[in-house]
């Protein structure tokens, strides 16, 4: 592995472009665009205020910068650096902004979710969508970019509207059997829309493109319900993470549960491999010490290193008892992600914050548990092969594949705490983000 130098960053905003050619990052009110392979500076743009959100257009030709405090969005062109666009929502304010799939329309959600405004960069026309719901995930596009679903709230009832993206015409509008709709998510094939209710009511509803209710799933009644959901890339499985520390897998034929995955505090199965991260004292050659010490020697002297050991079952994982009298208790399955080949599912149970669970979807069994020293901040699958990258707020990145597991220390001075990471579309590099800096990790071809 090779690592770039550290670059300044604000707000964990570092994004590879969809075509993989560029890397955009923010430093306060400046947008910096670099070449993804050489990290040479390509463009530098100055915005009106501190940037709070950035997003690439689908064709990688434009970048959107949202400044929510000002109610302003600025758009920059990579092909024509002199061209620029400013969208001011004025007194209506701004709480969210995103691209449409065609990369030529911008959807802005105003304060108090009064409306969504659709701005066209080509015709300068404006469309309005009323009554969008303030919820966890209220807007969803199909993967092919043809349709958009919007969660709405009117007269104290939940609705979903489906729009055609090329002309923003309403295709279907229907009410949902929910008390307080929490989110919507299209299957990757664009045929089924999943909608789930508030955590106080366990209910997952599956709708067809024409608004027909295909199925309704409910695992239990009174305790807290759905916490997270994820579709498999093939659209064959819907994984539902719940507050009862279980993941339930629905199949795409009958929409019934085919299995459920539990997350116990003690691993007893001998068929499960448990990789435990352990700290090791650094080994330093002390035959001819130099003074002052070299940079490499100094960093190895003062940085603790770690490695993975394979634990013998039974293994007791670190379990955190949730505080029952506080809102949003840290309990249940809060993170879910399928590998690109549909073969594996990675999960995190918030009660056991230091562990990543990797399930084999071909055998429907727990395959691997990674037990880390620190709390899991983020994990993401390689877009090209079954390989998982994990970060824990330390200066190390962790990679798992069916071949094994590795800990990689990011070289350099200072305390580089990786809070988030993102794969390049080719799967041969990663951008590692801390609160005030980022670097790029390049994987060797043999590793790829």
From TrEMBL:
<dbReference type="GO" id="GO:1990811">
    <property type="term" value="C:MWP complex"/>
</dbReference>
<protein>
    <submittedName>
        <fullName>WRP73 protein</fullName>
    </submittedName>
</protein>
<dbReference type="InterPro" id="IPR052778">
    <property type="entry name" value="Centrosome-WD_assoc"/>
</dbReference>
<dbReference type="Pfam" id="PF00400">
    <property type="entry name" value="WD40"/>
</dbReference>
<dbReference type="GO" id="GO:0005815">
    <property type="term" value="C:microtubule organizing center"/>
</dbReference>
<dbReference type="InterPro" id="IPR015943">
    <property type="entry name" value="WD40/YVTN_repeat-like_dom_sf"/>
</dbReference>
<dbReference type="InterPro" id="IPR001680">
    <property type="entry name" value="WD40_rpt"/>
</dbReference>
